[in-house]
Design a protein that fits this description.
Elements lengths: L3 E4 L2 E4 L15 E2 L3 E2 L6 E2 L2 E2 L1 H16 L19 H9 L6 H13 L5
Parallel strand pairs: 3-6
Antiparallel strand pairs: 1-2, 4-5
Length: 116
């Protein structure tokens, strides 16, 4: 995860912040995962319960669809070529998940660890 900054109404990662923005974002609570407006890198943020549920449901959907690259959030343009769901699923382990939900996320992370 990358640190985020707010500038001119956009969320920007530390890599794309060429203007030296000072308004720090990463400690803000959000209802969904955050990504840089320019390169789509994942930005560290605190997820609300709705945000946790959103990422968890995305993990379950990816598992249901067979863990192929098409079932994951994937950025078709920009610099960052990561797997969006996976990037944010790792963050879920920092929260107090129910035992079953934690196992589902760990299973997903294990089986996507070598995906391109």
């Amino acid at each position: 995860m990358f640190q985020g900054y707010i500038g001119e109404g956009e969320l920007v990662c530390e890599v794309c912040d060429h203007e030296g923005l000072e308004e720090y974002f990463s400690d803000q609570e959000t209802d969904s995962p955050c990504n840089c407006a320019y390169c789509h890198r994942p930005i560290n943020c605190v997820l609300t319960q709705d945000g946790i549920k959103y990422v968890y449901e995305s993990v379950r959907e990816a598992l249901k669809n067979g863990l192929n690259a098409r079932s994951d959030w994937r950025w078709e343009y920009g610099w960052y070529k990561g797997l969006g769901v996976r990037d944010h699923a790792e963050q879920l382990l920092e929260y107090n998940l129910e035992k079953k939900a934690k196992r589902v996320v760990e299973y997903y992370l294990y089986h996507t660890s070598n995906m391109p």
